[in-house]
Description:
Order of helices and strands: HHEEHE
Helix content: 55-70%
Shape: elongated
Largest sheet: 3 strands, antiparallel
Number of domains: 2
Structural class: alpha+beta
Strand order of the largest sheet: 1-2-3
Strand content: 15-25%
Distance between the termini: 67 Å
Amino acid sequence: MLEETRNKVLDSSKRVTDLTLQLEQKHAIIADMKAEYDRIASWSEIFDQSDMAVKKMICSYIIERVTVHRDYQLEVKFNINVEQFLNGIDSVTENETEELPIAQ
């Protein structure tokens, strides 16, 4: 009986250790996501506070072309891809473009 209880305690201890590790990993992921959100929110604030000429320059740098089809269906061709956007606009190269259709 003592051995059975000891094994249960060891198993429970191992489970607590594993769950603690998983919790720490989740906290790290949440911290990374929060930092990414804060960075994007700061870009939004900078864009909102800029004058119209700066906004047009930023948009022309990010967006290559916008095509409007029948029934106002939009197709937007970007000069950057998602990874470049998330890693910063400085990582943009001329050859790397991505075309994304926008649904209504």
